[in-house]
Design goal:
about 110 residues; alpha/beta; Phosphatidylinositol Transfer Protein Sec14p; 4 helices; 3 strands; about 35% helix; CRAL-TRIO_dom_sf; CRAL-TRIO domain-containing protein
Length: about 110
């Protein structure tokens, strides 16, 4: 598959940040085409790592209300301690030598933004 692979580290997750994101989503939903979340088609997958239990449950519940199934299927959640499973999933899309070390890959380059 050709497309972007987005990796999000959720180790700094806070419930207040999730609430703000949901409030923003509700406000902008009216402007979404067909009232559907505009997940870019250029994103082939989104991988979320270090996902707290509560965020996983919130995502599973709210994504059913806000995202079509084809987009939900492109999001993969991994809890802390699930490094091997996460790396196997990433390796399906990207060579590990291209993933920065802060995301448990092998690349020596520093991530410019987080």
């Amino acid at each position: 598959q050709i497309g972007l692979v987005v990796i999000i580290d959720c180790s700094s997750f806070s419930f207040s940040r999730f609430q703000r994101t949901m409030e923003f989503g509700k406000k902008t939903a009216a402007t979404w085409p067909r009232k559907e979340h505009p997940m870019p088609e250029t994103v082939c997958t989104t991988i979320m790592i270090n996902v707290p239990f509560v965020l996983e449950k919130l995502f599973r519940t709210t994504s059913k209300l806000t995202m079509p199934k084809r987009d939900r299927d492109r999001v993969h959640l991994f809890r802390a301690g699930n490094k091997a499973t996460y790396l196997n999933k990433v390796a399906q899309y990207v060579e590990l030598c291209q993933i920065p070390q802060c995301f448990h890959g092998e690349a020596n380059e520093q991530v410019v933004w987080r």
